[in-house]
Design a protein that fits this description.
mainly alpha, Rossmann fold, Serine Threonine Protein Phosphatase 5, Tetratricopeptide repeat, six-stranded parallel sheet, three-stranded antiparallel sheet, elongated
Length: 989
Amino acid sequence: MIQATDIPPRTYGAAVPVPAAVPRGHGRQREQLLQRVLRLLHRDEGGVLWVEGPAGAGKSRLLAFAAEEAAPAGALVLTGSGVAGPGMPPLAPLLDALASMPAARSGGSGEPGTPPSHEPGTAHREPGSSYPGPGSSYPGPGSSYPGPGASYPEAGSPYLWVRRVEDGLRDLARDRPVVVVLDDVEHCDEPTLLAVRGLTARLAGLPLLWVLAARSHLDVPAVESLRRDLLAEGAVPLDVGALEPDPVRLLVRDLLGPRAAQAEPYLPLAGGLPGAVRQLCGLLAARTGTAAGARAGEDPVAGAAAARRLDQLTRPAKELVLIASALGDSLTVRHLSRVLGRGESALLRPLREVLAAGLMRADRQHLAFAHPSVRDAVVATLPPPVRLSVRRRSVDLRLADGTPPAALAAEIAELAEPGDEHAIRVLETAARELAPHSPATAAAHLRRAVRLSGDAVPRRMRLAARLVPLLWQTGEAEEARALAREVVQVPPDAATHARVCLELTRMGGPFPVAQAEAHLRRALGHRGVPQPVKDQLLSTALLHRLLAGEAEEAGGALAGSLARARGTHPLNDLTQRTLRSMSACHRQRWTEALGHSEPVPAKAAELDPAYGPALPEVVLATVWRAALLGLAGDGTAAADLVEGGLADAEQRGRRAYLPLWRTARARLLLDGGRLPEAARELAAAGAGPHVPGTSAASGAAVVCARARIAFHTGDDAALEACAALAETYLEGEDRQSRRAGAWIAVLAALYRDEALTRDQLDAAAAHLRRGFLHATCVDAGDVVLLAAAALASGRRDVAAAAVEFAEDRARLNPGLPLFAGAAAHARGLFARDAGLLAEAAELHGAARPLLRARALEDAGECAAAADAGTARSRFEEAFALYTGCGAERDARRVHGRLRKLGIRPAGVAGAAVPAAPEPEWRGLTRSELGVVRLIAHGATNREAAERLFLSPHTVNTHLRHAFEKLGVRSRVQLARLYAREVDAAPVSA
């Protein structure tokens, strides 16, 4: 009788028996078997059951179940099995099943077919019996079957033996029902298969049940023919496949008990086959495995489980699985056949076997492994040289079929060896194709190509020259500059030297080598450098000098340089237009500047595939045009350009451009009065990598935008940090940074209510006259702040110059209303003309809510003495605009102006404002309380002094004492504390 105990192979030391488990799964098949056995026992109905499934599916256990159910009920169970390998005699499985019958008849219990040494109702060949050897002969008619230990006769006349088997089965079935269990039919010899075919037909009327088991989809012709004939004549098929996950887990729990969780990571390797699950549990019982190595192919438990399943396949199927595992998770049948060197038709049989075994699955186009861990475990059984050879052949075949190098570059990079020129060329081509879409991936391919080039210095330097711009784009600035320095110092040829000089110029900032000007002159003067490269180098160098404040238009130097740079390349043409636009801006011809900054031509990116649309010249030109459109009042078009560029930089991983795009977006948000969003965008711009040059978006430009936001929101800490940076800018040598520092100093002085010197005001005016800071335009309304600062500092001559500058700029650009509004605003402040200020508010319009609010506030202040009603309406509209923009400091200042008119509107925090604080508030004296009340409502120190008839020195003293008593450090903190504890208190009747 088939025993329900498996002994795992001796893989790790001694074998460990796995105890018999409660049968799990295949309940429907067991029920069908039981019904057939019961019909045999109770109705004497025989027949044929054909059980098939992949190796390890549990067919032998189902046969054991049939024997266990039939034998105790009185049926005679005869068992046999096909044996793989040559040398087996004909009819061996049938003879094996009947070998002990005559001995049992002649002695023992007297029951026919019941050997005394076995369980009742079961016949077996004894372990010591042997098959017939040479010289033996078949018995003649009337002779009996050999007993235990006897030798079978030589295969001389199988027909006689078939007749004797038939007679024996008839004889046995006459006394009691008989069940013939024949396992592994696929290993039976052809005479046995033919005998089974004939015996099932001739003995069909007897109480004889044939239970035959075979592996599915082996495509053994004789077995397929037997199966087809038996099913055609009424045999009942039983398909045994993989178990569902729940029965598998129950089986594991039965086998491993509390250690069942250890098997969970390995269950995909078993494919739901009970035999594979039992073997896996035996391995885990013998040696504790770890799940960490299952995917890496390094776990011995996973390796043994995979080896067991491979051993159950035929040789062609095993070879197919092994080669497929080296080719990846998904492949086509055509590619697999080419790698194996066989026709696709030759793969049908092994492929069917592999699919039936559950190791792989197939869809309409591809083959794939049932689970990634299955593939990992299988490929680990291949020797590394074989694995590499298979993968190289696969790559060569796919390249020959026209697969793009970019699709194979990662695989080639892994497989290539130093000096492999073919692999280097493929990686170089792939990098060129991927650069516009994925610069990080392209850089990785070129890095590998550089390493593969080994000691071939010229080849390595040319590859490094291509790698430099990709590294810089992706934020690896230090590595890019180090590599560029190496190429510039040891260039393989003049053209490569010039191209690396161009890349360094595109990056901006100082060259990483000494005598940068000498390198530029060498590149521009060498005959071996293509003229387009020379022209791009000249134009780009001039552009970055202009951005850095190193090349002003004194003496027409810019015009002369542009005349020498010929338009031999679209990028050069684009750079020249950007230069002309900035030159026009420097001369305050903003309409002309906008005309020069026409949209970037598509062919400029197409002709340089190393970058695509992310060339520094293209990015700078796009950001510059967006800034000009914002200045012209077309915020929608400007935002479209910026959003498109930012999305491309984020999606493509061009980290070097993120600060530039984010700064441009922050400026548009600031101009549109969306202060909280602008602050968040600037914070994001500061969080990224800041490499020198273009990508940094000029740190000074970022600080200027941050200072403007803090100026309106009342963020003391942010403004003080910007002021500290401004001091360092003013002490430096960079002209652009010094101008930015002078302007931030103006904002800080206005914020602190401090006077400015003539030199400070002149430096700030120089910032405005230049017209731009890096790739960002100076705001049109900044001239109003300069005029206000000059008037507050008692410098009416400087204020008059600022007004004249604003009016000249407006006359030069009649189509730009922002300049006209700024001119009217500055003149209105200087002349204290409420009408001009109201006109300025209308010219600013909805596009610039902060400028409009400031003009309304100034108009209200000018009208307050003569027309309180008009002043009130101006202040209320300004207050609403400031509040909507998040300009808390400006809103508090207007709130105070309304209070002076006797109006008690909702405060910044929405609370009513009392006429005066209680005298005992926080221990302040009445004088200190008077100063604090005015300052908290937005008055400057000078305004407080005028209203209280005190000197500015006395106001400063009172304010300093109040700060100490209240524990605050800034005017903003003072205003917030006052609003919370005094303004928010209920007003007494």
